[in-house]
């Protein structure tokens, strides 16, 4: 049974105002079943207020072999972080 | 209505949740796959949670030092008032889903009425339960449609389950003397009046699932009077084992 079911990725919004975050994956025959399964597998301890599911095959992932060219050049460019000036005390939540 | 009669009325509702919850619990770790296994175990926990609320209320009504555990684990077979449907054993997945579906539709209709009970505790338990049971009914209805309108084999298996279990559905609507008393005091629900809607709801799902209600005129009954099928003793020996072997044990 399980072998026939495609894999789905589950995204859950834990609170209103927060973004959906990736929670994990599961098997389901179609989108409706994926939503129900996600509800049972990932939100039964009050983890969420909204669920997205997307079939895993629709996700395009970066290739780990390309990591060097994709990510390494960013390592020595700390100046891209906005940390080189002092914040006034009045500015909160930064 | 006397407390003793009210307690019997509550058993008539609560014991269904306990016994069906026990049947579903037996499947924990044995579902057809991880997702369905968790879903059924969730339903079992919902039902056991509802059972606890009812039994805590019974313990309070009975006025002695009885606890919810005594009520759940230390009655004899004839003292359980669940319908025969919920004690029927787990066979294949389609059978479990059919049993669940037949009970869920009734359970939802029952709680929708019970929330108007003049008894505040029962009304509150019903209101809380409706959310859970709405989901159970959605889950089992979806699966009935999938299996009925699925492959030739799944259709055949679920239709066989329906043909086997339909004869237990009429008992859901029978009124015991305690049910009549509860109804007179506006505490209880007139289950006879739920039957038409029940058959209609079942039929709607079956139509979509290309399944049919068997044309039998013969129905099983007895559970509501405490006269159970041969399966009940085995179920209770599992359910009661710990409390009988280690009296007064607590989790």
Structure description:
The complex is a heterodimer of chains A (94) and B (251). Chain A is an alpha+beta fold and 94 residues long. Helix content of chain A is 18%, strand content 22%. Chain A has a three-stranded antiparallel β-sheet, with helices on one face. Chain A is flat, with a radius of gyration of 20 Å. With 251 residues, chain B is mainly α. Chain B has a single domain, classed as Ferritin, core subunit, four-helix bundle (Ferritin, Up-down Bundle), CATH 1.20.1260. In chain B, 65% of the residues lie in helices and 0% in strands. The mean pLDDT of chain B is 96. The chains are: A alpha+beta (94), B mainly alpha (251). Chain A: One of its GO terms (molecular function) is phenylacetyl-CoA 1,2-epoxidase activity. Chain A: InterPro entries: PaaB, PaaB_sf. Chain A: Keywords: Oxidoreductase. Chain A: Its EC number is 1.14.13.149.
Summary, kept brief:
With 94 residues, chain A is an alpha+beta fold.
Features:
heterodimer; A: 94 residues; alpha+beta; Ubiquitin-like (UB roll); 3-stranded antiparallel beta sheet; 22% strand; B: 251 residues; mainly alpha; Ferritin; globular; 1,2-phenylacetyl-CoA epoxidase subunit B (chain A); PaaB_sf (chain A)
List the helices and strands and how they pair.
The complex is a heterodimer of chains A (about 90) and B (about 250).
Chain A: E1 7-13, E2 20-27, H1 31-42, E3 50-55, H2 67-71
Antiparallel strand pairs in A: 1-2, 1-3
Chain B: H1 3-25, H2 34-62, H3 68-73, H4 84-87, H5 93-114, H6 120-148, H7 152-165, H8 177-184, H9 195-209, H10 232-245
Helix pairs in contact in B: 1-2, 1-8, 2-6, 5-6, 5-7, 5-9, 6-9
């Amino acid at each position: 049974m399980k072998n026939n079911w495609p894999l789905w990725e589950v995204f859950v919004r834990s609170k209103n105002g927060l973004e959906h975050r990736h929670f994990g994956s599961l098997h389901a025959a179609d989108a409706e079943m994926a939503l129900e399964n996600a509800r049972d597998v990932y939100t039964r301890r009050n983890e969420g207020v909204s669920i997205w599911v997307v079939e895993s095959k629709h996700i395009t992932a970066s290739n780990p072999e390309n990591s060097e060219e994709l990510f390494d050049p960013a390592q020595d460019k700390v100046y891209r972080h906005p940390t080189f000036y002092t914040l006034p005390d009045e500015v909160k939540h930064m | 209505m006397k407390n003793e009669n009210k307690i019997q009325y509550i058993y008539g509702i609560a014991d269904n949740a306990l016994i069906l919850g026990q049947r579903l619990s037996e499947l924990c770790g044995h579902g057809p796959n991880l997702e369905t296994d968790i879903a059924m175990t969730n339903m079992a926990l919902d039902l056991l949670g509802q059972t606890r609320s009812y039994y805590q209320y019974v313990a309070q009504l009975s006025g002695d030092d009885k606890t919810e555990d005594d009520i759940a684990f230390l009655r004899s077979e004839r003292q359980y008032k669940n319908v025969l449907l919920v004690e029927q054993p787990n066979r294949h997945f389609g059978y479990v889903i059919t049993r669940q579906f037949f009970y869920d539709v009734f359970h939802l209709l029952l709680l929708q009425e019970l929330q108007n009970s003049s008894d505040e505790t029962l009304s509150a338990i019903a209101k809380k339960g409706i959310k859970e049971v709405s989901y159970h009914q959605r889950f089992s209805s979806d699966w009935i449609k999938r299996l009925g309108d699925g492959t030739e084999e799944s259709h055949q298996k679920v239709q066989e389950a329906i043909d086997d279990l339909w004869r237990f559905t009429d008992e859901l609507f029978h009124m015991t003397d305690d049910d009549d008393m509860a109804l007179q005091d506006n505490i209880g629900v007139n289950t006879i009046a739920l039957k038409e809607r029940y058959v209609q709801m079942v039929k709607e799902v079956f139509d979509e699932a290309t399944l049919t209600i068997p044309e039998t005129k013969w129905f099983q009954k007895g559970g509501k009077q405490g006269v159970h099928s041969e399966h009940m003793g085995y179920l209770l020996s599992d359910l009661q084992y710990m409390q009988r072997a280690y009296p007064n044990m607590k989790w």
